[in-house]
Structure formats: structure tokens, C-alpha cells
Queue: 2 jobs
Job 1
Amino acid sequence: MAQDPLVIFTPSGKRGRFPVGTPVLTAARQLGVDLDSVCGGRGICSKCQITPAYGDFPKHGVSVAEDALSDWNDVEARYDRVRGLKSGRRLGCQASVLRDVVIDVPAESQVHRQVVRKAATARVIEMDPATRLYYIEVEEPDMHEPTGDLERVKRALKAQWDIPEISTEFSTLAGLQPVLRKGGWKITVALHKSDHAAVPRLISAWPGLHEGGLFGLAIDLGSTTIAAHLTNLETGEVKASSGIMNPQIRFGEDLMSRVSYAMMNPGGDVEMTRVVREAIDTLASELAKEAGIAPSLILETVFVCNPVMHHLLLGIDPVELGQAPFALATSNALSLTARDLDLTTLPASAQIYVLPCIAGHVGADAAAVALSEEPGKSNDLVLIVDVGTNAEILLGDKTRVLACSSPTGPAFEGAQISSGQRAAPGAIDAIRIDPETKEPRFRVIGCDKWSDEDGFWEETAATGITGICGSGIIEAVAELRTAGLLDPSGLIGGPAQTGTERCFPEGRTHSYLIHDATEDGGPRITVTQGDIRAIQLAKSALYAGARLLMDTRGVDTVDRVVLAGAFGAHISPKHAMVLGMIPDVPLDKVTSAGNAAGTGARIALCNLAARREIERVVKEITKVETAIEPRFQEHFVNANAIPHATDPFPELKKIVTLPNVSFNTSGDDRGGRRRRRS
Amino acid sequence: MAQDPLVIFTPSGKRGRFPVGTPVLTAARQLGVDLDSVCGGRGICSKCQITPAYGDFPKHGVSVAEDALSDWNDVEARYDRVRGLKSGRRLGCQASVLRDVVIDVPAESQVHRQVVRKAATARVIEMDPATRLYYIEVEEPDMHEPTGDLERVKRALKAQWDIPEISTEFSTLAGLQPVLRKGGWKITVALHKSDHAAVPRLISAWPGLHEGGLFGLAIDLGSTTIAAHLTNLETGEVKASSGIMNPQIRFGEDLMSRVSYAMMNPGGDVEMTRVVREAIDTLASELAKEAGIAPSLILETVFVCNPVMHHLLLGIDPVELGQAPFALATSNALSLTARDLDLTTLPASAQIYVLPCIAGHVGADAAAVALSEEPGKSNDLVLIVDVGTNAEILLGDKTRVLACSSPTGPAFEGAQISSGQRAAPGAIDAIRIDPETKEPRFRVIGCDKWSDEDGFWEETAATGITGICGSGIIEAVAELRTAGLLDPSGLIGGPAQTGTERCFPEGRTHSYLIHDATEDGGPRITVTQGDIRAIQLAKSALYAGARLLMDTRGVDTVDRVVLAGAFGAHISPKHAMVLGMIPDVPLDKVTSAGNAAGTGARIALCNLAARREIERVVKEITKVETAIEPRFQEHFVNANAIPHATDPFPELKKIVTLPNVSFNTSGDDRGGRRRRRS
């Protein structure tokens, strides 16, 4: 008796023998090959497309004849006529095996396909979504054997998909009857599985085969901005991205001022919860509109946020986070519904996953960075800094990961800076100061040219030069230091000390004039002594936090630095190091990870296993509390100097020579004036 | 070496040997003796009180010495001083075993104590509540080992109560932090367990030891009235009972008219859902006030209701229940929260259990009757009739149970009856008509005397005689028939035919005057021909439903009849049988079960195992659909006669002789006038 035909799947390499006439989808399922199907082999969803390969395959030891698969049948012909089937493709549920065959499963037919992140790094996200679609054909009601419609849906899932038990989101129940009748008892259901529930949960249903897609939101809920990616949960494709201001800003710029607001104003926490949820609704609505989809198709949302935002999102008074011992109401990951959070743009049954918090000051946003950047898998010692109003700092390698947060304040985002503004067209985001002439040149957002290049003024006429954004102010301070206009203690020199009228007196201190746009009706853009102090406070906090983790780890240097956060992506590593924001490393060892927290949210949105992974990882992270660590204060004071009072920064010295100036005219500096150069 | 002391618990009889010094509570737990404790043995909750018995116990083979238990310790002394300990009682967690001892566990120290139902039958409810209290001492937060407060609560439950995992009702989370701090990290939590969830669910928390009790509502949500019992979930005691009108009545008197309202008015179902939920909130609030408890202590609610009320409660359009095949959206039992139903009087985390429905016309109320009356455990064949606007009918014994519902309409409740009214003071609820004089005497609600007894008129002067209620109209029709004023076809005779002026012409038919109160400014209370027709329709539907079940079971008689429902409790069995409402059985085989549906709700509220039981039982019940069964129509027509056109009613004949009259004056009756007696 002849052997059954051999079926070999690529790229998995899985192989097995099956009786003549076995559908390719059946063979794939029995071998555990990742071949998608929503309709369960009924030839209507087209998710199980495969490409048979013909000819000799010495590698696999088979020759595939032209008649290895059954001929096209009516179902395939109709599908091709109506929708078009790519050349060489077959429907895996319709084509059956006649002889030895090699079957390629194209990426788009794999459930667990890989999606390349948009960010610079080559990391990919493997699709393993929590919510999946199942097409079912449900028995019609029978008066003589009365059962509920839901019970017959369950019976169909058991018989047709081997799903023995489900639970039902209550808000989905009311819509089930009309859907069943509209679909003629053929419907598609969305089932959500999570580790937090014993069985999959029915969260939506559509008449017939649902082809409108399934979407999720990955939301990075920051103190200042709320950023979200609308993602297709079947393909992993980002359909739309957007961000809006966090409306809580009117209750306080930074986290602690919001906690104070809640403490001082009864019901203040409730009000802040209300406005942030409204903003999320608005954002979700805008994204759905931009992507051209119904908001009812957004069935999952993942949140990452710092602990205060975490509590305010959940409707928990953040007061405990404002005082030692900074106790979180809950630190574990949470599985909720849109209804729990009173989100009204999303369907009430939409599933919400909130990443775990690491500690009272180190939130789910830091967990998301850990998920995205995986310090625990690094061979060398990596310092990851997520720069924002609060900085989340991770230090680690394969042996151990440590985390802390540091209250940098909003200066790095251009707030509390005299000419500061958000990163928007017209904002100076890069600046160079000639060490000889002390004259500046700069670039603004919206124009690629430097201000001393031809055409710059014409191209920026529309926006004007409106202010200076976060990365601009960092460069400005670093350039002032490099050009000898700012001494290590952070004092701006006067015109006589510096030899330039751009350093002009303002009250009892000096400011540096970058650009005077008053003739064009614009502002005078300066760096004031107050701006320098604000940046010094911010960078000292950041550096001290990093240094504290290094102390705890017992090291004086790190192997590499990753700058995360939307802002981190725009920081010039050299200027950051001149400023002493980050520890001294070779410049090529400073990389940007883009919005790593947002990427972590996207990973958790697309991949269920990643949720399990980060829930495990956060438990293993060593938490360091900056607020109560005496050495933090010491590190903070030493980090106030630019770049640093005591740490040597040898790598920085290889590329930059910083003028040894001092502009302190009082008698208490340690030899300042004598060492003045200019 | 001497043996360890022997400890014998009564009433369980469980026994075992324990080392000297073992606390009684510990011994009880190790033996699986049902001894309550909320504080886990800390000597503060007093739930584990026991009574040691001293002297000789030949039955148990032990002598108990006076020093069999340790002396009173400080904890017991303080407890006795502050709260008072009943004579002979000890705290099981404080008293430890020194020698052989017999320990009695009084009923109030048992978790699974038995509670006698208020109803006439001797049946008891065993306490096995889904929600229980646990006192825990929680670790304080530690900045160096940061975990959330909730995570430390979970750790305490695991360490102190051996509860390895819980889930948390989201709405409970926000309140946890203040409770922990107010209680100094000592709190009591309420955990709810159900078959629908894998692990117990945290649903409430109080500072310190919670001694304010734990309450539940058993709600019988009827088409006309909503009745509820507020029950102490620790003792089973009913603290308050009340009922209010279902405000949906303004959308339609009976179920089908409400379904029609939903069909004809877009959004009508939403409106009906809103008003019924508001009414439940009002009722819950009134009951809490009456019992003197905070509504926040009502942590569970059980609902029983017919399928239309079931759907309207849940916010599901009932339209499918108004047309064949009468498909329920879901038939299984449901576990929800107060928040799911937008109930605002109860805490959002209050757990709601809705009993399963049996079929599209046979609801959770019928399931509750089955739970209360247990036809499936009956040795003889019992017919259970729950009389209301819709009648639920169950027929069965140990071998098989059948169920149907029948649309009797509201006539049995006094609605659509010319002089009809609700059962309230002033309503006639019993009537006798003298067969010779044809004169009536009657009783009214609020007065024990008959109208021909001395003092009747004085005692009823305050209320007046205002109308006739459901049981009154049934008696009136039966008495008219017995007195020869009504013929088997349901025609009231005229004055000439009957020889009494109380039978007076009204239009083309006759009415019977019961009482003329017009001189006192009251109504003329009559029974009209229309009233007779309404009662005939109702009783025919009821009888036909019962008969259909008997057909399906293959029997012509039943062994006994149980009348359930608040109204069923007031029906006179003899009159019901004269009317032909129920099949012919010996009169002493007709009993009343009171509000069996409400009792079923109370059982499900107090006993978790009962929920599992009824969920199993409803699946085994044979459902009979009256609306599509041709024989139902035939039975209905035959049942129109009083008592019945074809069924012989031999038991009835033993006690009542019905005059063989006919008042049909047209030529089409079969010999009517010739057989006239009067």
C-alpha cells in the first residue's frame, strides 16, 4: 500500500503525512502550523491563503507535481471572481492534498506574524493578540427545546471551534439577539482571552462574517501629553497616531502639584479623573475618525502611565502617592472594561489592560519601557532614561535590573523656561554658538536649514521664530558652556566678562540673547539665569537618579545609555553629556529608543505573552526610592555643576574641551576670576 | 505515655485527639467542624462561641472534668466585661484543650446554621452564603519593598486565611486605601464566591473588625408588584420585607402589552428598564431605612422574575419574547454587579444573582418556585400553580418535572373586574351566598367578622366597602354557581330566572349586586357578566396549562395541588375547584405554599449550593410551550364551563352539589330552559 502524501509547510518546516483529500487547513491545524482562519474552513474569510510550491525540492527531499493539490473548486473560483485571489494563491480550507506537496504560508496568513516597529531599532513585534474573531453558525431557537440565544452561541463555539466555555461581557449580551437575526444565525464573535480570566470572554458580535477589522489603542498617558496609536489587531499595522494635551494641566503642571490639588480640594481627584477620561474619549474618537473606522471596532486598549496618572485614570485618590511611603493602591496589572472607566467613545465591553506599576514613583510607563527595551536581556550594562516631567530610569543587564524615578520637573519640555515652548513649528530645537564670535546660529522646527544658510528667513517667515523647545534649551545651555559664556557653576557671564553684548544684564544677573524678533512682531528669545537654574535642577535630578542606581549596582560607569521618550529622541547626545544630564560614555554608546513607553504599550496591545512577561519582570526589578535615599541629595548637589563637580567625564573630554571660566564676582568662589579666559 | 485529650464536638459528633493546649477553634477546623470565625482566632469577633459540657457522657464514652479547658484568659474576661458572654459560653479561639472534653457548637456559632422559613411548611434554609467576612491584619507599606496596598491585602488573606488568590471588584479598589489607614492596617473584607468566577472576589472592606452585619435582598420582580426581603446574610434573619407597584404598569398591564409597547415605541424598552431599576433602588432604600442599616451593607441581591421582566431588568429588548419561537437572549443564571444594572442605592460592587429561566415563557420565577417547592423530590405527583398575571405551572415527581406558563391575565388579581381592586383594607376577600335566599354575606380585609355578624359595620366604617379583590371575585363566581345564580356556561340568570332582585339586568345581560354602598358615598359592588367572562378566560388558561402538562406526562389526575404566589395563599381551595381553576383532587390535598417564588429567591440568597442545584434542575425540566400546542386551545375551550365541560371532578362532587341550571334564553343551548330549577 502506498504511503499517504507528505505535506511540508514553510517557513515552519513542519511536515506530516495525510490521507488523500485532506484540506490543507486541516493538515496545518493538526501539525500546529500557524495558519489563520476566522470562518473555520468555510471558504468565506480568505484568511487561510497559502501558496503551493511546485517542482523539485532537494532540501525537503520531495518533488511536487502540478496536480499535488485538488483543482480549484467553486468556492475558490467565486472568491477569486468577487475579491480576487493573488496569483499562485489557494484557499487552504478548499485545496486538498492529493500528492506530496510543499506549502508556503505567507506572512499575512499567519496569526503570529511579525510586525516591524516603526522605531529605528530592528526589533519586531510578534502578533499574539488577546482578542480574536470566530465565525460561527448558530442553531435557530426551537420552542420545543428552549435555550437562550447565548447558550446556542456557546454551543456553536464548542462544536465548531472546540472552545468549551466562555464568559460574556454583560454589555455585549443586549446586542446579541439582533445580531443573530440580522446575520441569519451566522455571526462573527470577538473573544478576549487574558490571564486574569479563566475562560475567553465574549466582547462583541457582528452579523455574518465580520470583515471590518478589529482595533486596539496603545495609550501613553503622560502628565503633559496623552499619546495614542490606533492599531489593527489582526495585522499589527498602526492606522493612526495622535496626541493631545493632558487637560489635568490646569490643576497642576507636574505630578506633585496634582496630588496637592487633590489633597487641598475635596473632590479634586474626581474632577481630574473626569477630565482625563474625557480627553481619552476625545482622542479615541479623533483617531477612529482619522483611520476611517467606527469606534465600536476598538475592542482593546492598553494604558501605560506613571503612578499618579495611573490612580487618577482609575478613579483612585492619589493622595498616598504624595507622601512617604508612597503606597500604590495596587501595583499589579489590571484588566478592566471601558465601562469600568466610564469611557463612552469605546464600546462598553472594550477590554482595558493597564501595565503593572513598579513602585510608588516608578509606574507602568517605566514597566512599558522595560518591556520595549528589555534591559534584563542586555549583555552589557545599559542605562535607560525616559525623559519627561518625571524621569524614569532603569539600569541593568542580564543579571539584575534596577529602577527609580526622579522628579526632573517640566524644564526639559520647555516649560518654566522664559522663552520656552512646546516642540512645534517656529520653535528653536538646535543651536550652535561660535566659540570665537559668541554669535549663535540655530534651526527651527519646520525648516531644515540653519539660520545662517540661504533661504532660512524666507522659509521660516510663515511661522516666525516663536521660542525654544526642550532639546533647544539643552543645546543652548551646553553651547553657552562650550563657548565660555557660562561657567561650571551655571553663571552666565556679563558683556565685559564674555566680550559680547549678547550677554546682557537683566536684574542682578545676565541673560544671553539668541534672537530678537520684535521687529517682526515676534518675541525676544533669550536664555536667562533663571532658565539655567531650571535646567540645572532638572539635569541634576536626572543624573543623581542614574548615579543612585549605579551606586546600588556598585558601578561607576555604564556601558551604554538609551534615551527614551518622545523628547529623548531629539536630544543631542553630545550636548546632553556637556550638560552632565547622563553619565559619561562614548558618544556612539548613546542611542535613542524613541517613545519606548508607547512602544511597550503597543507590544502589550499586540502580544498577550508580553503581558505575562512584563508582569513577571516587574516583580524582579529592584526598586530604588530616590526620595528617602540620603545619597540622592549628595548626588544631586554634585550634579549641579556643568557637567559635574566631581565626576571626571573622561569620554566627554576626548571630544570637547570645556573652557575653565568663572563669573562669580563675589569673594566666595574658589579662584574663579583668576582662571577667567575671555 | 498518656494519650492526647479527646475532643468531641456536638451536634456533629466529630471527634479527635489533640495535644494539650490546642485552642478549641483549631481543633474544630482540623476536624472540619462548622464553627464560625471572622477574626481568624484573634479573640475579637466572638463568632466562635462554644459551650463546653461537663460530667459523664456514657454515649460518648468520656467524663469531662471541670478543668477540661484552660481557665478564662484576659481576652475572654475583657470580652465578657465589654460585650457580655452568655453563661457557660467560651470563646473557641481562647479556650484550649487540657483534658477530654465535649464541646457543643450552638446554632449561632455555625456558619451553616439552619433558618426556619417564615412560611407554613417546616422546611428550613441552610445558611451557606456566597459572601463571607474575613478579618485580616495587613503589612504596612515599605518603601524599600514597594507593593500595592491591594497586593498586601492579598498576601494577608493567603497567610491568615489560606485563600491563595482573589479577584477584586474594580469599584471596591478606590476605597481600599482609606479603609486600611482608618483601620490601622487591620480591616475586615467581604469576599464573594460563585461558580461563575474562578476565585473569590473582594467586594467590600471596613476598618477594623466589621460588626455592622452583611445583608442581602431577595427580590421577586413581578409584572404588577416588586416584593423584596432584606435578609441578614450571617444569620438568615429577615430584617424587613416590603413591596411596591411595578411602575412599568403605565406602559402596559400585562407582559404582552409591555412587549408591544417596546415593539411600537423605539426606546420603549430602555424607558421600561430605567423605571423598573429606579423602583428597585427605591425599594432597597426603603427596606434599608426600615431595618435601620446603611444601604452600603447590602452586598448581594437575588432576582427572580418572569422572562419579560428578566429581559427588561437586564436592559435587553424583550421583543423576541413576544413572538414565536419566544427566544430568550440568555437562559442561564447570571452573576452581575449593581453597577452593571445601574442600581445606585446598592454599592456598585454589590453582587447580583439572577436565577436561570426555564424557557421563553417560563422564567426565573418558576425556577424559584421549583427551588422552593422541589417537585423533583416529591414522591407523589404534585401540580404547583403560581397564580399571577401570568401563571407558572409545574407538574412532577421524582421521575420527571414539566413546566409551562399560561397567560391568565390580571383578572385573578382583581384587575379588569368592574368592582375589582387590589387586596387592601375595604376590599371584599370572602363571600358566601345563601342557596335559599340568594342573599350574600361577606368579609372585607381589615375586619375578621362576616357582614351578618354584630359589629361588622362599625368596624368597617373607617375603610368602607370599597371593592372586591382577587380571592373575593373567585369566591363570588363560585358561590354564584353553587347558589344556582350562574349556569355552567357562565351566564348570570335574570331576576325571574333566579327569583332574586339581586340579579338585575344591565344592558343585555345580568349582574349580581353584592353590596350597595352609595348611601354612604361608596360604590355599588356588583359582579357583572363581563366579570364572569374575564374570570372564565383566566381560569380556563390556568386549567388548560395544567391539563397540557398532565397530557404530556400521560395522566388524568394528580395527587396533590400546591397554590403558590401571594394570591395563591388566599384562594379558598373549595371555591377554586368549583370554579374549575385546578384539577379535581381531595380538598385536603390542596395546600398553599405562600410566595414560593420569593422563598426560592431567599433560599438562593442564603445558600450557594442551592444556586448550583437550581441551575442543574432547570436543565432537566421538560418545557411545554402552551402557545403552539394545538391541544392547549382544545383544553382551553373545554375549561370555559364552570367547573368544566367534560372533566368529571369526582372529588368535588363528594363535597358540593352544583345546581344543574341554564339561563341561555336563545334557542341554541342544548336543553337549557327545560332543566331550569328555580
Note: The two ends of chain B are 99 Å apart (CA to CA).
Job 2
Amino acid sequence: MKYFEDIAAGEVWRLDRREVSAEEIIAFATKYDPQPFHIDAEAAEQSFFGTLIASGWHTNAMVMGMLADCIKTQQLVSLGAPGIDQCRWLVPVRPGDVLSGRATVMATRPSASRPMGLVTLRTEVFNHVDAKVVQLDGVGMYGIRPSPGSDATA
Amino acid sequence: MKYFEDIAAGEVWRLDRREVSAEEIIAFATKYDPQPFHIDAEAAEQSFFGTLIASGWHTNAMVMGMLADCIKTQQLVSLGAPGIDQCRWLVPVRPGDVLSGRATVMATRPSASRPMGLVTLRTEVFNHVDAKVVQLDGVGMYGIRPSPGSDATA
């Protein structure tokens, strides 16, 4: 397991590729963001964007999926997150895009009120032509290493 | 249709209720945020949170669904959004919660570079016991009223 104490500012976590399909764009948006440019290819062609584009919330959900893979691979003791400090959707995500990216540890600090650590992360995700599609700044909560002899499952 | 020119600072848009089920929490998280406390009720009981909780990204997707309903009802000419300025997940969203809320127009300004308007919105969503579960600050892009005689579909 990788605990808060094992995370250092400057670390870069690689985010593996994720392909984006028109079907998934439409399925997500039908449920959560049914605006014409997210669910209707013909209406999208007439829109400001010119093609179907993913909801920014769908993009962020896919980025979270990439981060969750990375948490699992590293066996990071993630305890969730209190929010987002800033998110910029820079370039629309379109059907056929292949996303990949990185999360950079900007800072770490122990929580003042709880037995956990707080990690400030900048997550940057790019499409297959290397345009940055989203940049997300936020703080994650991570478990601290159990002291020797304590009940590690507590 | 309600255009940028029809939106005024101080307006409050009502966000209609949305029920949260364990099935939907697990389905979303399985695809986008497969951490144990989002997908496995038993593991969640042993976690920091004590029960299954919705991914914050799922909460935000549901909030977007409520906003999209509100855009449709008001016939707002929404052109999407460039990002989020701040998001705070204040209280976990759990199975059985019923969410509702409001979006308050904090400020409006014409875009300096494009024929559209920018609306700063604070979105606050509460559960059925009136605890605020999320607060989201962001900017949305809205279409401007076509001038008389112009092609309104352009």
C-alpha cells in the first residue's frame, strides 16, 4: 500500500489512455446533460461546436476513471476528495478522441483535524493530437501509515 | 427562448428534485470511479464514510441533469461552459437521498471575444434533510438575442 507519507510533491502519476465513443457521449449525456450538442449528432453539426461533443461532466468522469485506475495500480490509500479548486475545459472532447495525461503532486500536508493527509493535485488530460482538453486542480484525502502494532484495518 | 439579455444578476433558478438510488451510485462508479466506498456496500461500511456514497463526479452529473432540466424549462439558449471555478462536496450523497436546490445568477457580462454572454452561476444542492451536499461556482455561455431581420437559426 502507498500511504500519504509515501507521496511527495513533484511526483507525476501517468494516466492511461481512454477512448471516447459517440455511443458513450450520447449515453452519458442522455442521463445527465441532455443538451442537443451532446446527444444529437445532427443538431450538434448546426451548433456552435460543429460536431457532437462530450459533456464536460462526462470528460471529468472519464478523467476520474483514469485516476481511479492509477490509484489502484499504485495501491494508493485514497479516502476521496472534498472538492475541486478549478477546472477548465479547454478543447471539446469528440467521438474518436483518445485521452491520456498526467496528475502532478503540487503539495502535501497533514490534515489539521483528522488522521489523514491532503494532497494537492493538478490533473492534465490531452487528446490524441496532444491538445490539452482539461486541467483540473483539486485536493485529495489519503490515509496515513498505521503505526506499528496498531490495528491496520481500523 | 430566453437569451443572455434576458438573464439578470440576482435571479434564482429552481432545481427540481432528483432521487438517488444505490443501483445508480454503483452503476456510475463502476464505470467512472470504482473505489470501494462507491461500488461495494460492505466495503463502504468498513470505510471512513460508513455507508455507500455517491462519487462526487456522480453528484455533479446529477446536478448537471437538474440544471439541464431547468435550461429546457426556461428555454435558455445555453452554449455550454468553459469550466468550474470552485466545487465543494460538503456532505456525502447516500442511497435514498432526494436532492433539490437552486442556481443563483451572481453576475452577467458580454463576452469580449465572441457573440455570446457569460453568466456566473452559484449552484447549491441540498438533500432531503436540508443539508447542503454540494456548492458549485462556474461560468456558463449563453446565446445573445438575434437582431431583428437576421437569420435566427445562424
Note: Residues 5 and 32 of chain A are 37 Å apart (CA to CA).
